[in-house]
Design goal:
The chain has 554 residues and is an alpha/beta fold. It is 37% helix and 20% strand.
């Protein structure tokens, strides 16, 4: 259940009001609106173990030692891995990019992959977006004669329980002196690049040339749900500027394929169009396709990879749709009143897409959801999503005896369970739910930034875009448009699963839309001729101008 409340007016000027409501002090308004590469970059050597890491990499270069970058398989790890590999090769190092298989290897380091690198003669392994908790795996690498440099941004349990890596670069280390701990994995690897450049700039690599790598850092920063403030805001802002120049063939090819105008690229284009395709590669078993797209050096290679990745994403959509259909059928045959959560599985379901399926169930039934499947072996893997009533890590922790492994965040997570215990999953989680759920999470109060008239939308958009890019920590402004008339209602999209509206108020008329919505999706049904209050965002229209992205109709 949701309720809405309009924020108190903090300033007559819309931009100033929005900044104040986001906690940006008046003296910092200009700084926030004008991100600056030099001003907003912190000294990379304030990160723990950075000096050691740089010296080890320079030593590897001097002694012609082989280096491997082991990155995660998501929208943080893949762009970050490509970025770091590209730079290290520019320095003259021999570098392998290792991306684990999501289903057969899973997240993090594994001994089989380390053995493969050792057999290939690798002496230095640099992790990206992982490694902080891989104690046994890094001990194995040490035995194989591989020095591990961890670059990561995940929580550090304690310094007593970290791996014996050659260097552990993580802004969340309790002993870190770095002034900003919100970097994504690629952001931490970027700081390693900056530190290496302080010590040794490759011949012919001009001052500031490294900024062209920020397209990849920007993709990761926008995709990984890190706060878009401080240094991250600068990295995302700079990354979008680089991408708009169209210099990287792979990004240019994908944007061309998707009919996205490069010069006006936005963060929404990245998070709704490019990032899902990068993620689709690992969900559908071949993360290398995404890496090859981003690393492509010719237009021909880039377009070939873009077409392949788009095809993979289409396969992913089809698989998700088929799984959602099967899940919905099972849900319709179940009595959902018997449990506060939904737990379902099928050995034929592919684990990599179950998080997406779980999202649709949460939206439809407003309950926490756990779904599991299998991809080879006896272990079952799954994903879970919260409806906001419970922290998923706490919930899994309260039923930890049934899991083989689990982890994640308050809103989502992943888990594995042995086949012989999967029948316990539902009862154990249902029993644990009451002990950890948020007793006060009955009503979700959503703060609206301001009331707007339809006639104000165009001017408001020109002001609002100064605050972009939007994301975690700098959310897109949310407005209420009171007493507007719905003049037309239509479905659009290949499968007619999106909703388009025309809204009117006095002499003003504006287009509005909502993705993956029907007239029944809102608090009050969207019906032509009705006068309603509309809650939504103001954004760029497809054909120029501005439009409203509808969140709710009251």
């Amino acid at each position: 259940m949701r309720s809405y409340k309009v924020r108190d007016s903090l300033h007559n000027d819309l931009v100033a009001h929005l900044l104040l409501s986001r906690g940006v002090e008046p003296l910092l308004h200009e700084q926030f609106l004008t991100p600056d590469f030099i001003r907003d970059s912190h000294d990379p050597f304030l990160l723990p173990d950075m000096h050691k890491a740089v010296e080890r990499i320079l030593s590897a270069k001097k002694n012609n030692e082989k280096v491997a970058v082991w990155s995660d398989y998501d929208c943080d790890g893949i762009p970050g891995g490509v970025m770091l590999v590209e730079f290290l090769r520019t320095m003259g190092l021999s570098v392998t990019h290792y991306i684990p298989h999501r289903h057969t290897e899973g997240y993090g380091l594994n001994t089989e992959g380390i053995d493969e690198l050792a057999a290939a003669g690798v002496k230095v392994m640099i992790t990206l977006d992982l490694g902080t908790t891989d104690v046994a795996q890094i001990a194995h690498a040490n035995k194989k004669g591989i020095d591990t440099i961890v670059t990561d941004h995940h929580l550090v349990p304690s310094l007593e329980h970290v791996p014996e890596a050659f260097a552990l670069i993580n802004p969340k280390r309790p002993d870190s002196k770095y002034p900003f701990d919100g970097l994504c994995g690629a952001g931490v690897a970027w700081k390693l690049v900056q530190a290496l450049l302080v010590k040794e700039r490759p011949a012919g690599f001009g001052e500031g040339q490294e900024k062209w790598l920020l397209d990849l850092v920007g993709i990761a920063t926008l995709s990984d749900m890190v706060p878009l403030v401080g240094e991250n805001r600068m990295l995302a802002h700079s990354g979008l500027r680089v991408m708009r120049r169209g210099r990287r063939p792979g990004i240019a090819a994908m944007l061309k394929l998707l009919k996205i105008h490069t010069a006006s690229l936005t963060e929404d284009d990245i998070t709704f169009m490019l990032s899902p395709r990068i993620n689709a590669a690992s969900r559908m078993e071949r993360p290398q396709t995404a890496a090859e797209l981003l690393a492509a050096t010719t237009e021909e290679e880039a377009m070939e990879r873009a077409i392949a990745l788009n095809h993979i994403n289409d396969e992913r959509k089809g698989l998700v749709a088929a799984t959602v259909k099967e899940v919905n059928k099972r849900v319709s045959e179940s009595d959902l009143t018997k449990s506060p959560i939904i737990v379902m599985g099928n050995p034929n379901w592919r684990p990599g897409i179950l998080g997406l399926v779980a999202n649709t169930l949460v939206e439809a039934h407003a309950k926490p959801v756990f779904l599991w499947g299998r991809q080879g072996g006896e272990e079952l893997r799954g994903s879970c999503r919260s409806d906001g009533s419970v922290n998923m890590v706490e919930l899994m922790g309260a039923a930890r005896e049934v899991f083989d492994h689990f982890g994640g965040h308050s809103a989502s997570g992943g888990f594995s369970v042995l086949e012989e215990r999967v029948h316990e999953l539902g009862p154990k989680l249902s029993a644990a739910y009451e002990s950890v759920r948020n007793q006060n999470a009955v009503v979700e109060e959503i703060l609206l930034d301001r009331e707007l008239e339809l006639a104000e939308v165009f001017r408001a958009y020109n002001n609002i875009k100064q605050l972009a890019p939007f994301g975690v920590g700098n959310t897109k402004p949310l407005f209420i448009f009171p007493a507007v008339s719905i003049t037309t209602v239509r479905a659009f999209g290949k499968t007619h699963n999106h909703l388009g509206l025309t809204l009117g108020q006095g002499s003003a008329a504006i287009e509005a839309m909502s993705f993956f919505a029907t007239p029944e999706s809102f608090t009050k049904k969207a019906v032509a001729g009705e006068k309603v209050d509309v809650v939504g965002h103001v954004e760029a229209g497809w054909r120029g101008g501005s439009r409203i992205r509808v969140v709710d109709i009251l």
